[in-house]
């Protein structure tokens, strides 16, 4: 089993050295992150996503799409339909302290927008709460 928890407790892939934990989204990205390059081997990357261990993959509600497991609950709409942020299978916690909860105008976000966008003179929430309350 090569499952490990990488930075911020995000899903990772354990290298042969049993010490290096590579983020799931860094597996099969054409950059060797493990010393021996095992994160880019053909048996792992030959038929994406089928060749990947299940813990590295999150299946979007549209069966045609998948993302790497560490992209689930990252605040961004990686699936295109927000199923990686709001779906029952995503099971994401509420917006963290770095985020403002609202119905975003931009489809880049799902149920939260980064607090750094608050009071920047640009509407990011349907209610304008990011400009007046946040």
Automatic annotation (TrEMBL):
Q: Name one Pfam family in it.
A: LDLRAD1_C
Out of the domains of life, which is the source? Eukaryota
Coiled coil start-end: none
Keyword annotations for this protein, in alphabetical order, are:
Disulfide bond
Q: Which residues form the LDLRAD1-like C-terminal domain?
A: 93-132
**InterPro entries attached here?**
LDL_receptor-like_sf, LDLR_class-A_CS, LDLRAD1_C, LDrepeatLR_classA_rpt
This chain's protein is named LRAD1 protein
Query: What is the organism field in this record?
Result: Corythaeola cristata
């Amino acid at each position: 089993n090569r499952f490990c928890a990488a930075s911020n407790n995000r899903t990772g892939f354990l290298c042969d050295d049993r010490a290096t934990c590579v983020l799931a989204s860094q597996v099969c990205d054409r950059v060797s992150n493990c010393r021996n390059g095992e994160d880019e081997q053909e048996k792992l990357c030959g038929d994406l996503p089928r060749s990947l261990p299940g813990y590295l993959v999150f299946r979007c509600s549209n069966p045609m799409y998948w993302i790497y497991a560490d992209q689930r609950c990252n605040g961004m709409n990686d699936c295109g339909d927000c199923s990686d942020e709001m779906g029952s299978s995503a099971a994401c916690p509420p917006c963290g302290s770095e985020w403002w909860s609202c119905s975003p105008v931009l489809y880049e976000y799902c149920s939260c927008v980064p607090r750094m966008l608050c009071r920047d003179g640009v509407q990011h929430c349907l209610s304008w709460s990011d400009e007046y309350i946040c």
